[in-house]
Each structure stands twice: as C-alpha cells, then as structure tokens.
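Example 9 (inverse folding). The structure is encoded as follows.
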C-alpha cells in the first residue's frame, strides 16, 4: 500500500526500457478514449489526428506539471518530463513514488480511491467496492480497504482501480492538495501563483493511469479468412464464444464484426473476411479497433487452398506489423496421405515459417472426432505472442486467473 503520509525523498520513477513514454502511450489508445483527457487538459481535439493529438496533450500535461517560472526560464516554454511531473505530484500528495512511472501512477490511483472511500456514505462505499470487483463491504478506513483490494485483485488491481477512478475523478476538487498560503512578498506571490495546478493535474494523471492500464490489459485478436474458411467455428473453439449469441460493439458492419468476450475485462475479437478494401468500408470507430489489433489468426480453408485472395489477405495482415498465425482449418477433410503435401504447399505459397503455421479442425467431421482438433496449439501460440507483447494473458479464457501474467 502506498504511503499516505509524508513521502520520503527517493529516486525519480524511471522511464525504463519497455515502458511507454507518455506520447507513445496516448498513440496506442483509440482516439475516442483520449477525449476525456483532452477535456481535462483543455486541449481542443478538432482537426487533430491521433498522433498529433497525443503529442499536444503530452506537452500540455507536462507543462501543467511544471512551475510556470521554470517552464518559461529554464525550459523555453516546455514543461518537465512526465516522470518528473508524476514524481512531484506524488510527493505533494504524500504518496511514496513507485519504482517506475506505471507503479507510481497506480499508487496515486490507490491513494485517490482510499480518500474517495473515506468521503463516501455507506451505500456509495458498497457500490464502489462492487465496481472494483470486490464482494461484501469494504473495511475501514479507505487505506485498509485498498490494501485488501490490492491483495484480492492481484495484477488486475491497476485496471480495476483505473476504471473506478474514471467515474470519480470529478470529485478531485473536493480535496485541498496544496496548503493555501497567503502571499507575504511579491516574489513569494509570483512563485506561489506559478506552482503546478494540482487540482487540474491530478485528474489528468489519474486518467493517464487508467489509459495505461487499459492499453496493457486490452487484448484485441483479429480472426481473418474467407467466408468459407470457418472463422465462426474458430472463434467458438478457441475462445468458447458462440458468435450467434453476442452483439457486436458499435462501429461494426456486415463485413467486420467486433465483439467483447463476456467475462473478460478487455478482450476483443475482430471477425473480418480480409484486411484489404474492407478497412475502407468500416466506420471510424471500427477502424480504430482494427488499427489496434494485437495479433492475427488467419484461417485458411484446406478445401480451397491458397489462391490470389488468400495470399492478398495474408499479406494484408503482415502489413500491419503484428504477429500472424496461419491455421489451416478443415484438415480432417483431407486424406491422410495428402495432408503433408498440402501443408507444405500452402506454407510455401504464403512464405510462412513453421512456428507460425498450424493445422486444425475447428468443427470436425463427427465420425472423426467429437471435439475440435488442434485448438491447444493455437491457444498456446496466442498466449505466448501476447505475453511477448507485454499483455496480461489472463484476459484469455483458457488461462487460469491464478496464473502470473508475463
């Protein structure tokens, strides 16, 4: 549990290798997800693309976190680095900085939620406790409750805390984060007036913390293949999701279906017939999801083989620079003596390595098998690749919640 007393001096939260910088983090979000932060920072997003909007908001937040005199005199109008901004904010809030920027963000989330719990009535406390993903009534005080939540939720604590704080950060003005000091001398007055505006900065940092947790935990898997390849059967066999019983999220079209997997915090499946002209036919919201696919499972129909369309769609997946697994479906329909020759031919035409090429039967012939064939290997590949991308693989339904994420 992070300290809520005076935080001792310590090293600055590090910008370690593998930790996204603030602009890069914002670029990995969907544009719509950035709008609350833009509003908090008073940045007008109109006419700004995702990359430019991320750059402008990062600049505005860092400038907000620096002293105006220092920004002008020492930094030529720019603010300090984000790691220095968050270190200073943590110290002023009495929160012990973490080992790096993400852990310090979570410490601030925890501190804020503990204060929010202390400020709520009994019914509000219970409601917030449930939203956090906990059962029963929260212990008192808030610091004790958050300690219990941290232990109970494990590595999903940051994500849950971020989602809860997103609905409560508007209450931040209720807290006096800085002592109200009456200016004594004109110089003191100038320094006091130019201080970081924490009542604006804190909600912005909490929103950044939420976005970082969302980006880390969100898993988006693209299921690509021709209409006859068996994509629906693949989704059912791999993810246990009967596609006929789910509703696509807003922005989907008849050509692209985007669904959130029930029971997961942020696991999305994108079912699309190809990655060519279909991208141009979807709505902006659907395109944002397509742009953030973490990996692709390309389903190839063993009965059709690799034709010009299949090759084009596969190359479209590769062009997005994400891991791609080719799964030859309906392998049970080929005669045993023909299978190896067919697989070698298909792999050669696509130019894919053995490690990213599997055979399966997601809906096999009943006389051959009463269960899908080859699913375990596909699930293992997905979990391994997501782990290497730094994602929390416990979003996947076949991974035990007790298993440590990479």
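The amino acid assigned to each position is listed next.
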């Amino acid at each position: 549990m992070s300290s809520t007393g005076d935080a001792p001096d310590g090293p600055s939260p590090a910008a370690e290798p593998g930790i996204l910088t603030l602009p890069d983090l914002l670029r990995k979000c969907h544009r719509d997800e950035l709008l609350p932060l833009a509003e908090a920072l008073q940045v007008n997003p109109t006419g700004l693309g995702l990359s430019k909007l991320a750059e402008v908001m990062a600049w505005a937040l860092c400038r907000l976190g620096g002293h105006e005199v220092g920004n002008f005199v020492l930094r030529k109008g720019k603010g300090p680095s984000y790691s220095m901004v968050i270190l200073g904010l943590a110290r002023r809030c009495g929160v012990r900085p973490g080992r790096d920027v993400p852990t310090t963000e979570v410490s601030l989330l925890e501190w804020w939620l503990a204060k929010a719990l202390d400020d709520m009535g009994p019914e509000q406390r219970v409601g917030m406790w449930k939203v956090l993903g906990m059962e029963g009534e929260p212990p008192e005080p808030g610091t004790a409750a958050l300690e219990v939540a941290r232990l109970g939720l494990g590595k999903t604590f940051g994500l849950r805390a971020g989602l809860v704080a997103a609905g409560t950060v508007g209450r931040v003005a209720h807290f006096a984060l800085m002592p109200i000091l009456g200016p004594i001398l004109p110089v003191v007055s100038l320094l006091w007036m130019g201080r970081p505006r924490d009542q604006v900065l804190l909600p912005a940092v909490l929103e950044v913390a939420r976005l970082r947790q969302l980006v880390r935990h969100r898993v988006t898997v693209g299921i690509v293949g021709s209409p006859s390849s068996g994509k629906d059967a693949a989704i059912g066999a791999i993810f246990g999701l009967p596609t006929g019983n789910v509703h696509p999220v807003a922005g989907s079209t008849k050509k692209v279906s985007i669904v959130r997997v029930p029971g997961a915090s942020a696991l999305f499946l994108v079912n699309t017939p190809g990655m060519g002209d279909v991208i141009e036919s979807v709505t902006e919201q659907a395109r944002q999801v397509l742009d953030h696919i973490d990996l692709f499972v390309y389903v190839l129909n063993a009965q059709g083989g690799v034709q010009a369309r299949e090759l084009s769609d596969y190359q479209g997946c590769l062009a997005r620079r994400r891991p791609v697994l080719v799964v030859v479906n309906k392998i049970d329909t080929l005669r045993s003596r023909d299978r190896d020759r067919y697989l070698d031919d298909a792999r050669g035409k696509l130019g894919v390595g053995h490690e990213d090429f599997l055979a399966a039967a997601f809906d096999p012939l009943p006389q051959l098998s009463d269960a899908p064939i080859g699913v375990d290997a596909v699930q293992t590949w997905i979990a391994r690749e997501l782990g290497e991308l730094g994602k929390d693989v416990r979003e996947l339904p076949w991974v035990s919640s007790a298993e440590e994420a990479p």
